Amino acid sequence: MSEKVKVTNLVKTFGTNEVLKGINLTVQDNEVVVIIGPSGSGKSTLLRTLNKLEEPTSGSIVIDNTDIANKNVNMNTIRENIGMVFQHFNLFNNLTVGENIMLAPVELKKETKAEASKQAKQLLDTVGLKEKFSARVQSLSGGQQQRVAIARALAMNPDIMLFDEPTSALDPEMVGDVLEVMKDLAKKGMTMIVVTHEMGFAKEVADRVVFVDDGQILEQGTPDQIFGHPKNERLRDFLNKIL
Ligand code: ADP
Ligand code: MG
Known about the structure:
The chain is an alpha/beta fold. 38% of the residues lie in helices and 26% in strands. Adenosine-5'-diphosphate binds next to β2 and α1. Pfam families: ABC_tran (PF00005).
């Protein structure tokens, strides 16, 4: 096992609001870590600092032995290695499905259009949307759009994938297909950090579950420890409310 991500004493403030209050988190290669916790506890901010969408106020974030808090590190290189999937898909509605997936490989990795489109078609196949290459984004359901967003993130061949409540904006009947794609990815050995309220997914897929409350990690452990034998009072309260 090797360390993929090591977060040490990570603090993030917005103005006077201290949102992350000294987070320590290590993620191993091939590990699936699920982050749970109440709304407003800092889960999105934590993921966003890992991807440099937010600058840490203090602390260090080492990814593949590179401290990304270091100002000299090239942000594009970091983002090429870390895919991110958001709650609201964030696809380009004026482009086709295929164009969305090809955009970053062509612009950032300088792939030829032929290479990028071949890969886009393969990725669409793996997310169950083989026939949608030329479709307009708006013609797809939310669940289909989210699977396109996953394919788009994978097109950069990242070795870490971050998911921020990827199924929270979906109608219930669409959730399963998206979770299936994520399960497949986990099976293939992708290192994943997933913020979700889907406790079934956490129980089945997570190697480790991390409970964040008020900008701090209050407890972490295997799904069995966290769901079966929670120790922290606030974790127990949280689980009582959502299960
Ligand atoms: P969660 O994802 O757990 O719901 P967030 O990380 O989105 O929590 O938010 C944690 C806190 O940080 C909230 O109080 C939120 O208002 C604040 N926050 C998040 N992003 C910003 C921002 N860009 N500017 C100011 N405050 C922010
Ligand atoms: Mg959030």
